[in-house]
Write a structure and sequence with these properties.
alpha/beta, Rossmann fold, Four Helix Bundle (Hemerythrin (Met), subunit A)
Length: 463
């Protein structure tokens, strides 16, 4: 039975969806004004893994991940560059999708844009105003936080404490310093509304998109830990007041990626873009780096950790290189994997099971079934096993091996030049001539031929 940590209750709970075998899941997506960084990778790999695992468990999942394409940061960048906001959002949405593809993150079932949901946002704000939960002042509309008695529960911050710590700004139009904007007056970049030309506040966007595509009450709302307050707190308040029912049954939050113990963020200018990281480390290395740690814990980024993950990922992926994968599995391994993942997505334990299977494959223990099982369970964690072996045509292979005859001084009459080179390297290794052995390995690697030394001998593959 799957158990997950619910931020709202601050405890691990048994997962029981609202509707049997169906899950409605919403994750706060990107604000498309810049390239995605490693912190975003942590977030979207985490919830991609949850999405994959829920489907593995047999649930029919509807996964909605929004795109925020109207925001102060977007407008500021469009102003600086002297272009329309849509130019900025289109550019960085494409960048985001490329990054997600690079991380082997599945496309969500629904991916709404804020600018395409304006009617639903306006309707929700009107409802809140009619019911006394919101008020308008000079074209702006604010939510009355103190009208919602449960405000602060999600972030474990009572209203009284929040009020005591709130800063009161001079000439503030709000009734209370805690009140937040549902609609903002903006005559330059705004849209027509009952309150004049303006644009939505950030929080109302997610509430409206979630309701439109998943309904008034959902099973899981997830995102980074930095969104718990104020974003998710505000979402919950306005959604429950507008809809008159519970917004989300479970709230899940992933921990930060840190550099030198500080949260990775654009505001601190200490971030690495996903595209930059992918230049040095492949998809599987980044996923292993992220999933080695429990999703709720912070992850400290450093090159040593990523290099270790790269090595581990290659060991995992290459263990089944060249094996034709079938559909006969080890039921005990699957049961162990499921037991680990049912413990609030204990990916660290799940990975240990995968590495155990990889070791059995390398030793030749029940090789076919263990390889099948490793491939099957690895895909649940989002590993891309296609990176283990690159298929090439006969012409491509000929182009790769043709120069090797001359480079290694091998007669053209030899049919399999690579196997012949491996024999030469074996003699060097038997003579403990490690320098020559490494030189041969590196020369082949330069021709996109990767060697793999095992107890049974040396194998090769095109990469």
């Amino acid at each position: 039975m799957l158990k997950i940590y619910n931020t709202l209750s601050n405890q691990i709970e048994e997962f029981k969806p609202l509707e049997e075998n169906k899950v409605k899941m919403y994750v706060c997506g990107p604000t498309v004004y810049d390239h995605a960084h490693l912190g975003h990778a942590r977030c979207y790999i985490t919830w991609d893994t949850l999405y994959r695992y829920l489907k593995f468990k047999g649930y029919e999942v509807t996964y909605c991940r929004n795109v925020t394409d109207v925001d102060d940061k977007i407008l500021k960048k469009s102003d600086v560059e002297g272009v329309e906001p849509s130019v900025i959002t289109d550019r960085y949405y494409k960048s985001f999708i490329n990054s997600m593809n690079g991380l082997n993150v599945l496309k969500p079932d629904v991916e709404p844009r804020a600018t395409k949901t304006l009617g639903e946002m306006i309707a929700m704000v009107k409802k809140l105003e009619q019911d006394g939960f919101a008020y308008s002042v000079d074209g702006d509309v604010y939510f009355r936080v103190e009208k919602y008695a449960k405000y602060g529960e999600l972030s474990s911050q009572p209203i009284k404490d929040l009020l005591n710590g709130a800063r009161v700004e001079a000439n503030d139009k709000k009734e209370s310093p805690l009140d937040f904007a549902l609609w903002k007056k903006d005559e330059k970049f705004g849209y027509k509304s009952p309150w004049g030309v303006g644009r939505p506040g950030w929080h109302i966007e997610c509430s409206a998109m979630s309701k439109k595509h998943l309904g008034s009450t959902i099973d899981i709302h997830a995102g980074g830990a930095d969104l718990a307050f104020p974003h998710h707190e505000n979402e919950r308040a306005q959604s429950e007041c507008a809809n008159g029912c519970q917004f989300s049954k479970y709230w899940m939050h992933n921990g930060f990626v840190t550099i030198n113990k500080e949260k990775m963020s654009k505001s601190l200018n200490n971030f690495l873009t996903i595209d930059d990281v992918l230049k040095s480390y492949d998809t599987n290395a980044i996923r292993l780096f992220i999933l080695t740690n429990h999703y709720r814990m912070p992850v400290e980024f450093n090159d040593v950790a990523l290099a270790g993950a790269q090595s581990g990922a290659k060991r995992l992926i290459n263990s089944i290189a060249g094996i034709v994968i079938g559909e006969e599995y080890d039921a005990d391994a699957i049961k162990e994997f499921e037991s680990a993942m049912d413990e609030d997505l204990n990916t660290s334990k799940a990975l240990a099971i995968l590495f155990g299977l990889a070791e059995k494959v390398r030793k030749g223990e029940n090789k076919q079934i263990n390889a099948n099982t490793l491939s099957y369970l690895g895909s649940v964690l989002g590993f891309d096993f296609s990176l283990s072996q690159k298929e090439v045509s006969a012409d491509e292979l000929k182009a790769i091996v043709e120069p090797l005859y001359e480079e290694f001084g091998i007669e053209k009459s030899v049919e399999n030049v690579i196997d012949e080179i491996i024999k030469i390297r074996k003699i060097a290794r038997d003579n403990k001539d490690w320098a020559k052995s490494d030189e041969i390995r590196d020369k082949l690697l330069a021709h996109k031929i990767q060697l793999k030394d095992t107890k049974e001998g040396t194998t090769w593959q095109i990469i």
